[in-house]
Write a structure and sequence with these properties.
Layout lengths: L10 H22 L17 H13 L2 H4 L13 E4 L2 E4 L16 H10 L14 H4 L4 H12 L12 E2 L8 H9 L13 H11 L5 H4 L17 E3 L2 E3 L14 H10 L1 E2 L3 E2 L4 H8 L4 H14 L16 H7 L1 H10 L1 H4 L17 H4 L4 H9 L21 H15 L8 H12 L3
Antiparallel strand pairs: 1-2, 2-3, 4-5, 6-7
GO molecular function: electron transfer activity; heme binding; iron ion binding; oxidoreductase activity, acting on CH-OH group of donors
Keywords: Cell membrane, Heme, Iron, Membrane, Metal-binding, Repeat, Signal
Pfam families: Cytochrom_C, Cytochrome_CBB3
């Protein structure tokens, strides 16, 4: 090693540096420390008013609690569902009132702290897979109602597996620093110039609904990019489309169209719910109609900038030109897709949109269109609605890329996607995680 590196070096310098680093570490730990909240005896379900429990059941649906806190094939709300993130795999917590593995000993205050501050009853920092950056905007009364609902569920004894995160992210005090940048507390502002319905929608979307958690881009630290709110994001290997004026839909979303989509999982002018949106629709199908209309009204306003009064464009079908450009894709489409999606196919009609109107096919990001081909589409509500088989086991990455390139060229006026086969390969890998 060059002696130049040691110029000005003194043994005391190293000791002072070590002391300074230790002091900084202790200061950081002090900032991150939170006290535990004392356990309480498991409350009797009868101690909660029936009206509060019923309201909490609706609010838990609006917040999609069971979606993340129910393992595949597991008991509702018992946790242990694997949640894949760019930083590793997290496992959701048990929300049943089991005293050993759930929240049976949690007070309402402990529950509110977890939802608003991301702090467990024990004082440990919680990972933002629990979207407390949105739940922090929810009123205490609504959180207490959700707490009442959860504490009246049947206890399930189920321990979540240990998280599998990239080192050193398993060190929870680091989350205190993350919150300094990305946890913005406070109520959702009421806009006096807007209707009661719009303000209700804002409260639900920005709070319990945590729509921005999927539909907003995230930075390298996993925080939402506030300056690009609702500009599109990532959800469980799918691309969550933009919910602002850049939304790729051929026909502008109206409040009525959004209401129908959120309530049933299908919009004849836009497409069908797939991937992570399926469980969302399943939840919204059973909440009060007024809440879904409020959500639709607010989201439609965020997509303002599209002229919803202009004539709706007719679906495109550039079959001949597309076949010349993508002959392999045309052949594959004829064999695997045309039986349902071709002109005159018996599956067309009945509220099913033409591929020329499907938003995923028009998006700048092909991920969701690819995942629909790989994974298929399941009707989110009682088997009603469009159903499409997955082709992950029957088509290669190159074949999926060919057929989707052909479909985009045939049914849209959008430019070709680039590096499609590479994107298919990535989507297939994400499908298999965790």
């Amino acid at each position: 090693m060059s002696a130049r590196l040691f110029r000005g070096y003194h043994p005391h310098t190293a000791r002072y540096g070590a002391v300074l680093i230790l002091a900084m570490a202790l200061f950081a730990l002090a900032l991150s420390w939170r006290p535990a909240i004392a356990p309480i005896p498991v409350p009797s379900p009868s101690s909660f008013p029936a009206e509060q429990v019923a309201r909490g059941a609706v609010l838990a649906k609006l917040g999609d609690c069971a979606v993340c806190h129910t393992a595949e094939g597991g008991r509702p709300l018992a946790g242990a569902r694997a949640l894949a993130t760019p930083f590793g795999t997290l496992y959701s917590d048990n929300l049943t009132p089991d005293p050993d593995t759930g929240i049976g000993h949690w007070s309402a205050a402990a529950f509110r702290r977890a939802m608003k501050d991301g702090i467990s009853r024990s004082g440990a920092h919680l990972y933002p897979a629990l979207p407390y950056e949105h739940f922090t905007h929810v009123t205490d009364a609504d959180l207490d109602a959700i707490y009442a609902f959860l504490m009246t569920r049947r206890p399930v004894h189920q321990e979540a597996p240990a998280n599998k995160l990239i080192p050193p992210l398993g060190f929870r005090p680091l989350l205190a620093g993350w919150k300094m940048f990305f946890l913005h507390k406070g109520a959702v502002p009421v806009d006096p110039g807007r209707s009661t319905e719009w303000n209700r929608g804002a409260y639900l979307v920005e709070g319990l609904g945590h729509c921005g958690g999927c539909h907003t881009p995230r930075n390298l630290a996993g925080g939402e990019e506030g300056a690009r709110a609702y500009h599109g994001g990532v959800a469980e290997g799918w691309h969550a489309p933009a919910l602002d004026a850049s939304n790729p839909a051929a026909r502008a979303w109206t409040p009525d169209a959004l209401y129908t989509y959120l309530r049933t999982g299908i919009s004849p002018d836009h497409g069908a719910a797939a991937g992570p949106m399926g469980p969302v629709v399943e939840s919204l199908a059973s909440v009060p109609e007024s809440d879904v209309r409020a959500i639709a009204t607010y989201i439609a306003s965020r997509m303002a900038g599209r002229d919803i009064g202009s004539p709706a464009p007719a679906p495109l079908d550039n079959e001949v030109a597309a076949a010349k450009r993508f002959p392999e894709g045309a052949t594959l489409f004829a064999g695997a897709c045309a039986g349902c999606h071709g002109p005159g196919a018996p599956m067309m009609g009945q509220g099913r949109p033409s591929l020329g109107l499907v938003s995923n096919l028009r998006d700048d990001d092909p991920t969701s269109a690819i995942q629909a081909i790989l994974q298929g589409i399941e009707p989110p509500i009682g088997g009603r609605g469009p159903k499409m088989p997955g082709f992950a086991d029957s088509l290669t990455d190159g074949q999926v890329a060919a057929v989707i390139a052909y479909a985009r060229a045939r049914y849209t006026d959008r430019p070709d996607w680039s590096k499609l086969e590479q994107t298919v390969r990535k989507a297939r890998k994400e499908r298999a995680q965790p």
